[in-house]
Amino acid sequence: MPTEMKRMEQDIVDKLKDLRLASGGALNYRVVHMEASNVLGPAPREKDEQKDEKDESLEKSLIEKGVRPFSVQALREDQMTTQLVYSSLGVAYKDKPEEIIPNIVPNNVSELEYKLLNIIYKLNRDQSPKVALVAPMSAVRVDPQMANLYRQLGMPIPTADDPYAPLQQVLRIEKYEVNRVKFDQDQPLPQDSDTLVIVDPENLNRRQLWEINRALVEGKSVFLAVQTYNWDYSVRGNRLSISRIDRNPRINDLLSFGVTIREDILMDINHLPLTIRTSSNPLANLFGGGITLDLPTHIMLNQSSMNPDVSITSSLSNIFYLWGSALKIDEQKIKDNKLKVTRLFSTSKEAWTRPARRTLEQADLEPPASGGEQYPLALLITGQFPDAFKGQKPPEWPSAQKSQESSAEKKAEGIPELKPAPGKLIIVACGRMFNKNFLSQGVVDFYLNSIDVLSLGDKLIGIRSKKPINRTIDKPSSGARNFWKFVNLGLVNILIAAVGLIIAGLRRKARNAYTLTHRS
Question: How many separate domains does the chain show?
Fold first, then answer.
């Protein structure tokens, strides 16, 4: 092993010893040393075949299970060299296939406890939890030259881009059974799913709203990330034009139990710059450049915005809340419906809103003189949800081709009887932050924590949070910035000068007293 990885084996063994003691001896472990040269090197000579047969069979069997060597850089004397090392952990339980945690290096040893217990916990279940994921895909326009290149390489020409593919991938890595649903007449919401995930919906029709309502009323767990609007940035000369593009999710028609998504524009003093690409400079776009805009709609949420008393958000790193909205809570309706609402994260205390309109002016981007306020952005709601379509027949799919037979069935069917049961809902008034172009570690952790709580409870969340996170402070106000500038640049110098003058005065006084004493 390279010098940087010499202590890693002992660190892992110590952690496994602790877990073995905590489990009362239910966890057993064994350290296996392997040689990459036995697999990747030349074939053994005839006289060495018998001697190496045992080692070679061990390494080959582990490679078949998924243990692969990987290269690391190591410092040797005065130069950097590359070495192939084995550093993996396999988890076996009864007759189930062995799970492999690959490529363990010092940087991710802190995450090993969660990864290990997550695999053990999910191997111990009789059935993997089922998640139905609803997220849009966008059409792709392929340049004719690129299309010809795809044909020459024998590759299919892409027709759609999936900006939310990572949401499906991370759930499968976490051993969830994920079903990607188009959510239309041909593929409605599956009834056997444990959790329903809907991200960035647009123009939901009444039938789709009815399907979500049924899931909530019948006790399904629902994760809902809604984007009310996006912004289009265009630069013409020295002038920036910001235009609003409405998404019209219509989800407020469903949220009649006391929570709604605000239609006005949300801004916060805590924000980050965002680099956008423009059609006027394709060369800069090619090299990853563009125009950097620092607008208060690019909201950054840090630890002061998170609820520390909830396992979902108690140990999250920063979240980029792009073009999101605020939530409005009607306390009386929540009380009447006997629901419990828990805030997961909010804006800073210096956030503000502007009325919804198509374009933004420079004056809209400035915080109000009277100060801002704090708005809720994500909520966990539990309890028995009311039926927003009570007494109504299920709406038909807009594209349904009704036959006389199906119409007769619908007339005979009447109003379906739902089976009420307490459910869970996590609602976030921003879907853009789950887009693969803006996905951050904090957003991924929040997403996985939410799905774990909705599907499994919060047993594993406290373990996932045991890793270093980026802790930033709120952006200070202009008054606070001016104060600290004065303290660092002015007050310190004034104090030094004052101390110098005091010392000089004391020395002069002592010298004068000494002179007068000796003259007398």
Answer: 3
